[in-house]
Specification:
alpha/beta, Glycerol-3-phosphate (1)-acyltransferase, 2 domains, seven-stranded mixed beta sheet, 9 strands, globular
Length: 448
């Protein structure tokens, strides 16, 4: 049957007009057809002979009538009919690699949760950390997909450089740290933990370290400690100094060692500290509290001694050439808080911390990777590693000023912006003037 179709229309056309003359000329061939029909072998060879007839037709069989049958040929050209072969190829549809998604943060978190749940002994932490590193490497540098590898060309290449930083920032800032890494930091916590995370046993274990820095390394000198009330609520408002701030810990050590009643100090720490792995949980156990109006008001309602640093990140992120130049005290949130709760304010001035950790410059690449507002580069950190946190042996001096009473104001006056700004500037000028006096009286950075 195939031989008959090729003999009628060698170009695959359906036009019957050119087929009629071909049939008349093929009449002598029909007489010879019974002979090959008896033998099966010659029948197979006859097919190529009929397939060669298009060449003879083109050369001179019927040149006047054949163009009518030749023009429909492009419509039925075998090239157009070959397209379904590519569609029928199951390679693109059946490739499982294209459907496999790269590892995501959620999947890695789920796997790490299962790994950490298996760690019942601290000795098991090392292999788990190794497996954590391998999982993170697979997350940050996934294998390219076969189909997408052809589509991702030069325009998409610059985005690859930011993937490690984006992945690290997403992992460090996710609730995974709050749920798991925070649990690692408080694995040996005691049962006596207050509502804000203070662990007395843990704080006592660290007291020898703080006493060493306080007495031997920084040789802190105290003045006016009697201005801090023995009982009741009080807000210590201090300048924030030092690229790596130890002022809150040193204030707490000073009140514990020098105050007649050895008052316990709670201080507000910047919000970004609690997004850094382990640091927020450790500081929380030592007495730091996440900085917000709600936490501060709850502490003062419980008659706590609270330290506030109104400069915030701007105070510790300024370069060394701007040392001891107070930044703006925010919008006076500490003044509003003191008026609402009737809390007296004690201005505190700290000298020496700026020379302990002088910031030479900031590392934008590390701050981007860790999701921090800045990463300081000091003469000792990060060059000396953990030992560089102690900084230089500059001598500190802490002065507690006369308390400023706030119980004369009504709580609704905390919304009086003129009053709040006036009190805020008065407090800032008081601390700045004390700073200038101490700097003029100081003979040496390291000897005082």
């Amino acid at each position: 049957m195939a031989r008959k179709v090729l003999g009628n229309d060698p170009f695959g056309g359906d036009n019957p007009k050119p087929a009629a003359p071909a049939a008349k000329k093929a009449a002598p061939a029909k007489k010879a057809a019974p002979a090959p029909a008896k033998k099966a072998a010659p029948a197979k060879k006859a097919a190529p002979d009929t397939a060669k007839k298009p060449a003879s037709v083109e050369k001179g069989a019927a040149p006047a009538k054949k163009p009518e049958g030749v023009w429909p040929a492009p419509e039925a050209a075998p090239v157009a009919e070959a397209a379904p072969v590519a569609e029928a190829a199951p390679v693109a549809e059946a490739a499982p690699v294209a459907e496999a998604a790269p590892p995501s943060i959620a999947s890695v978190i789920a796997q790490l949760d299962a790994l950490l749940d298996q760690a019942k002994d601290p000795a098991e932490s090392r292999p788990l950390l190794d497996r954590l590193a391998s999982r993170l490497r697979s997350l940050v540098q996934p294998e390219p997909e076969p189909e997408r590898a052809l589509a991702v060309d030069a325009p998409a290449a610059p985005a690859v450089h930011d993937e490690p930083f984006d992945a690290a920032r997403e992992l460090l800032g996710s609730d995974y740290y709050l749920r798991r890494w925070g649990q690692t930091a408080i694995r040996d916590r005691s049962e006596e933990v207050d509502d804000f995370g203070l662990d007395p046993d843990y704080a006592r274990r660290w007291q020898p370290v703080w006493d060493l820095l306080y007495d031997r390394w920084w040789r802190v000198e105290i003045e006016g400690i009697e201005n801090v009330p023995a009982t009741g609520r009080v807000a210590l408002v201090a300048n924030h100094s030092g690229a790596i701030p130890f002022d809150g810990i040193m204030l707490a050590t000073a009140l514990r060692k020098e105050h007649p009643n050895a008052r316990t100090l709670r201080w507000l720490a910047e919000d970004f500290v609690f997004h850094f792995p382990f640091a927020g949980a450790y500081l929380n156990r030592l007495g730091a509290v996440r900085a917000c109006q709600e936490n501060a008001e709850r502490l003062l309602r419980k008659d706590a001694c609270l330290a506030l640093f109104p400069e915030g990140v701007k105070g510790i992120a300024k370069p060394y050439r701007e040392r001891y130049q107070l930044q703006r005290f925010g919008r006076g949130g500490h003044i509003k808080l003191a008026i609402r709760t009737g809390t007296p304010i004690v201005p505190v001035t700290i000298v020496g911390a700026e020379e302990t950790h002088p910031m030479l410059f900031q590392s934008g690449r590390l701050s981007k990777m860790l999701g921090l507002p800045f990463v300081p580069i000091t003469p000792t950190f990060p060059l000396l590693g953990p030992l560089g946190l102690a900084g230089l042996p500059a001598r500190w001096k802490i002065v507690f000023g006369a308390p400023i009473a706030m119980d004369a104001y009504r709580p609704e006056q905390s919304e009086d912006h003129v009053l709040v700004n006036r009190l805020n500037e008065k407090l800032r000028e008081s601390i700045q003037s004390t700073l200038d006096q101490l700097l003029r009286a100081r003979h040496s950075v390291f000897k005082g």
